[in-house]
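My main concern about presentation is that the manuscript never shows what a single data entry looks like. For the editor and my fellow referees, an illustration may be useful. For illustration, here is how one protein appears when written out as sequence plus structure tokens:

***
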Amino acid sequence: MTRPYLGNPKYTIEILQKYDFVFQKRFGQNFLIDTHVLDKIISAAGITKEDFVLEIGPGIGTMTQYLAEAAREVTAVEIDDALIPILSDTLKEWDNVSVIHGDILKTDIRKLALDKNGGKPIKVVANLPYYITTPIIMGLFENKVPIDSITIMVQKEVADRMQVGPGTKDYGALSLAVQYYAKPEIVANVPPNCFMPRPKVGSAVIRLTRHEESPVNVKDEKLMFCLVRASFNQRRKTLVNGLKNSRELDFSKEKIESALEKCGFPLNIRGEALTLEQFAELTNAFIE
């Protein structure tokens, strides 16, 4: 590797000093400085020379360099103005990378997949700050963007939440939403010392492989997610009360109890006890 790779902390510090870069707390910036972790992410994402990769939040381009080596083409979307000139510098050796300066939540990813990959499913790789993890992942899934997999670095507890099942304290709306769209698998745990600056909590790399077919048969996806949100908004309440108190739903207590009875669920059951299949069954019971 003759090129100046950013997985090396010394080179990362040089670049940050050269541009007098100031870390922005509001963007949750922590840059990876561990080559083993970078290699793990590339291999977990299964990137080949056939692939077009979308990277969200490239930072100073550390992972982008590794992605560019492995993929056919990479597009990175970066929101922070101060990082755009740095990326022009750190990525100048690679001709298969383009940077979009903007907000991923406002980027037309479907059009990007069409232009860059002929509309075929793309691979997404990201190192995401905690506060924006859920909106980004749900935006990618709900907008029916053609995606093969999403391999992301997130806070460890968020990764845990994505893959757990009913009856655990981490189980919630995020677990159900992710598992409805994809198969989640934690591929690496990453301690704070792999980043600059060091975050206060551990991180994990999780790969979400998109389901080719939905794992459950549900007649109204939107209604199912309303039921899910309502049952976890007030975790300590029974499912009947959670659904009755929801602003999104307009069901009488009788209708709710009748739907539960139709599914054979006890009336004092809590939402956190239901599996994805059972939420789908309950949704269909309301429609029927």
Summary: The first strand starts at residue 31 and ends at 32.
